[in-house]
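Problem: given the chain below (237 residues), write out its structure.
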Amino acid sequence: MTKSINRNALKYIAIIAMLIDHIAWAFVRTDSILGEVMHFIGRLTGPTMAFMIYEGYLHTRIIKKYAIRLGLFAFISWIPYSMFEVGKWPYPTFGVIYTLFLGLLIVWMWDKAKIPKALKVVIVILACIASLFGDWPIFDILWPLFLFIYKDDEKRKWRSFYILIIVEVAFIMLPSILSGEPFRSVFQLGAFMVPPILMYLYNGESGSKNAFHKWFFYIFYPLHLLILALLKMYVFV
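Solution.
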C-alpha cells in the first residue's frame, strides 16, 4: 500500500472531520443516523491532532515559538468556543487548541526538564486535570506524550496509542452502557480509524512549506466556531 498522506494532508483531514463534527453538534440530532455518522467521522479529530502535536514537536526547530503560537490561539479561541457551546462568554471551558497546548508543554517538559521522573509524572497528572477545562481532555495530552516516549519503538508506540484509544472510548461510552442505551455513543468507535491511517497511509513527509498550511488551522478554528455560533443564535433558532 502506497503511503500517500503527508502532514499537511493529515491536518486537513482533521480539520474537515472537526467541521463535520461541529456542524452535527450544532444542527443534527445525535440519535439520528446522520448525527451518528457525522460524529463517527468527527472522532478522527482528537487523536489525529494529538499525533500532529507529537510530529510538530519532532520537526519544529523552535519549540518556544510553537508553544507561544498554540497558547495565543487557545486564548483567542476562547470567546468563539464559548459562544458555540453555550451562546455566551465567558464559559469556563476552552477549545481543543488549549488541550493541544498543554500536550505540547508536557512533551517538551518530558524531553528537556532536568527533574526526577516521579516529578514529571506528577506534572503530567496536574496537566491532565487542567485539561478537563478543554476539549478532548486528558487524552490529547497522553497521546502525544506516549508517542514521544516510545518514538524509537514502533511496536510499543502504536500499542500504547491503541490502548489509550480503547480507554478513551470505553470511558466515554460507559455512561450510555450503564444507562442501557449503548447505541447513543457508538459513534465514539470512530477513533479507531486513526491508527490505521497513521500507520499505513502517513508517509512522514511535511508536504508544501507554504505558510498558508501553517496558519490555516489557527485561523480556521476560531473562525468556524464563531460562524457556527452565529448561525445557531440568529439563523437556525
